[in-house]
């Protein structure tokens, strides 16, 4: 094994950094090993190399793209007082543009082209008028040649029938690809062909897998297969030969007085007829071959285009054979490992520990698979008995897997010294000294008490992903280190990270960087050009793929097709124990590829889908599973880029694509609903994916992207915070600061101005926050989150942000509603359902509704696909929707249908607790996904767990009781769901509809968006003209929204009444005219206002109902503040405020609610236009306590 070189260490002391006072720094670099020569070149033939070397040679020195400064710009624009309607207009304002990575110079491209060997491109065919005729002749010839190579009966053609010598291809080309057999000699009969030695490709195939050699060779040549499939035999000759009658007995045999022979038995006569038919077929094939040879020779002599196309095919065939020979030569050295004996840790741990001890911030940049995720936290844990370490991962699956791995290395169980903590699951206690958490879980722990962090070392792994929560975490930790409020060491780890940019961000702190470049197992790179040559494909990528911006559907389909052919080729010629990892853009492509493998290669591969909805236990089981004769194929999204090592993977097929949210500053709709866009990944992500192999044995990396355009890819991915909604993150930041934008202004990457304005507007309209200048905010403020420590942190953050923006920063107060939503693991809109449950006494039922609306629909057309041989998507969709209608309680609501399905699922679990297969079979019959239903149940339990300490409530555990409650009050559940998601409401119109038999075009009520139903998602409702649709899920495709998981309201009056009853704040006024007294209410969502006019009685009913809700809000606040008291003491306390017990008030509210909607026909509620600003009265669901009487 080659000797391991030492690490490269870069130390940056205090005087090296540029702080706020403008001090100058000098950089000191200590390199244990000399740097590589500058003229070193990378070659796919070179044995070895690591990710850092590869990435440095593949990329230029382009500086990373400047990140967004949206928070600073938002605060600067907000200097003048603005209303929330005006603040919403900021979504259309232009933010400071974040420059993309500079396009590399032509010189860099030339250098890369020189470094990466490519096969010679095929010659362009000469365009003449005989293109079609030449192409048909070439196809026909190829089919004949392939048949000639596998014929079993020797030729019966006599020398007289042999054609005359024609023009032959050059000798050199004929040696490699003898497309036209040489004419047989007339002087002597044809000798049987001698077995000749196989050529390079066929020989390698035969040595590795003799039974599959010919199949692998023919399966890899796409160009030849296409010619064979489309070739046409001369139909006239075939018809003549098949219809020719059998020859009769000759006259000479009748003249002879010879006794006729006894006819053979029937079975012998049948066999002779079969033999004669085979001989005739062979003769027909030979004549067709000779005819094709003559046509080929004539075309080669007279048609220049045909000749050039034929020579191009020969060149492609030769190049393919050479490429496959090189591939087999490399693969011949492949090892077969025992996975239990794999050792991946290759770090110089004493050096890392010394750097951590001497510095505040340490960057650990090593190749993937070096063992940093397990080794560094474990070494810190064993450093001293007083250390308490937390290590973060971006995803839940990696968090649990690595904690299990470290615990097994220490020969202990998870939950002792080593534990994990993710939202909804925790293993460990106060004695646990090494916690593995998701980055969001760590942020929530920091926000609870930022002044007293209980950790001595904080390790942020896979730091290059830079999720929005990680940006905020780093900003808070940096502020704590600069102000010395806590004493801890910060370690940032990644395989691909621009450390120079981050060292400047940590100016004023002692910073060091540890980099290690050591020899690893060889990785053989095949870019798009080499991959096409290996498969014999003539596909050429169009120029400037990256500059086009959005990846078009045709490019995705071509790369998908190449990946399919490559899987087939690798499966045909490699050892089944060597697995394949395929990186696909998104979940849809993963499921499509998985279905294709199950259909085409079910007996040869073991397909393992891997995306965010797949349980970690399934991936771990797949890693341990080995089916003899079947090769594992992991089909993954970008979730497989980080942390988890797959030691059995030898091949990585990378489509270089990913599906991520993309916000356009010019498109307000993309700010509200960031669309998932297929886009090219960065060079850093390419290095991450390449690093999945070469960890424990040599590997092959197939990058389906042109080598000459690799430098066009951005150096690093755009920070996700610039393309994400920040509603939930903003709400959580209010625990430590009076304006979350102040924290965003301190982050390295910042959200866009429009996103900030939209999030603050939505939180205000839901009642989660109130402007500090609002006269009602003082009574609504929750004092428990504004303790002395958090107040000091808020002042510190605001002062730091003030220095950045040079303007006054507005302050906000978090309300009781906001505090409830901070605790539960759902976004604000589903969280409002939990609050409505407290108002109506339907706590358990509305917690289930929140879990349902936060999850994906469990109804799926694929759930029952195995029941019939020929799967019809349209019929399966219809059957699935019919099954949904059985669950919807007579309403047109997908949410109610899923809620009932989840409750029936729980009943089936209780009935067949020990038989999981029985429950799965029930799900299959009902077109339901078992995994998605389990996710809903788990989230429901998690919400109850988080609320248990906040406030006592009636938790109904029995699914039968909840089901009975749902059957009675399903319509009220639909009403409250409509209010929670009212900002997404749509009105169905018949204008400009794109469907012939239905009117399904809808316009946003509180937005300017156009929406259509997502016909690929099953639903129990059909849109009708005049309906109000409340979709839970919206996905943006270009300028249209696809709506799914919806509830339909046939009566607009019902829609407006639900908003008047449950909206957190409404403005209104009372007017009189000749017809009598009436009320006008103003409703504001999404920056738009709508006005509703009601009659006097209806207005009184609305205001009285809202007063009852406010009374319940006061009771909830008192109950929370005195939650440790017994119920009798709480009731006594409530009576001192002239308030009834909570359950009595809830019973009155739910009774009144049912009565209002049962008598809706007698009420008036119509939308009107109101231009005057005279609605000066406010109705607020207020938590202000009434005056205490005793």
From TrEMBL:
<feature type="domain" description="Helicase C-terminal">
    <location>
        <begin position="565"/>
        <end position="737"/>
    </location>
</feature>
<feature type="region of interest" description="Disordered">
    <location>
        <begin position="91"/>
        <end position="209"/>
    </location>
</feature>
<feature type="domain" description="Helicase ATP-binding">
    <location>
        <begin position="353"/>
        <end position="515"/>
    </location>
</feature>
<dbReference type="GO" id="GO:0004386">
    <property type="term" value="F:helicase activity"/>
</dbReference>
<dbReference type="Pfam" id="PF00271">
    <property type="entry name" value="Helicase_C"/>
</dbReference>
<feature type="compositionally biased region" description="Basic and acidic residues">
    <location>
        <begin position="124"/>
        <end position="150"/>
    </location>
</feature>
<keyword id="KW-0547">Nucleotide-binding</keyword>
<dbReference type="InterPro" id="IPR014001">
    <property type="entry name" value="Helicase_ATP-bd"/>
</dbReference>
<keyword id="KW-0347">Helicase</keyword>
<dbReference type="InterPro" id="IPR027417">
    <property type="entry name" value="P-loop_NTPase"/>
</dbReference>
<feature type="region of interest" description="Disordered">
    <location>
        <begin position="1"/>
        <end position="48"/>
    </location>
</feature>
<feature type="compositionally biased region" description="Low complexity">
    <location>
        <begin position="165"/>
        <end position="189"/>
    </location>
</feature>
<feature type="region of interest" description="Disordered">
    <location>
        <begin position="232"/>
        <end position="300"/>
    </location>
</feature>
<dbReference type="InterPro" id="IPR011545">
    <property type="entry name" value="DEAD/DEAH_box_helicase_dom"/>
</dbReference>
<keyword id="KW-0378">Hydrolase</keyword>
<feature type="compositionally biased region" description="Basic and acidic residues">
    <location>
        <begin position="11"/>
        <end position="21"/>
    </location>
</feature>
<dbReference type="GO" id="GO:0003723">
    <property type="term" value="F:RNA binding"/>
</dbReference>
<protein>
    <submittedName>
        <fullName>ATP-dependent RNA helicase, putative</fullName>
    </submittedName>
</protein>
<dbReference type="Pfam" id="PF00270">
    <property type="entry name" value="DEAD"/>
</dbReference>
<dbReference type="GO" id="GO:0005524">
    <property type="term" value="F:ATP binding"/>
</dbReference>
<keyword id="KW-0067">ATP-binding</keyword>
<dbReference type="InterPro" id="IPR001650">
    <property type="entry name" value="Helicase_C-like"/>
</dbReference>
<feature type="compositionally biased region" description="Basic and acidic residues">
    <location>
        <begin position="272"/>
        <end position="300"/>
    </location>
</feature>
<feature type="compositionally biased region" description="Polar residues">
    <location>
        <begin position="38"/>
        <end position="48"/>
    </location>
</feature>
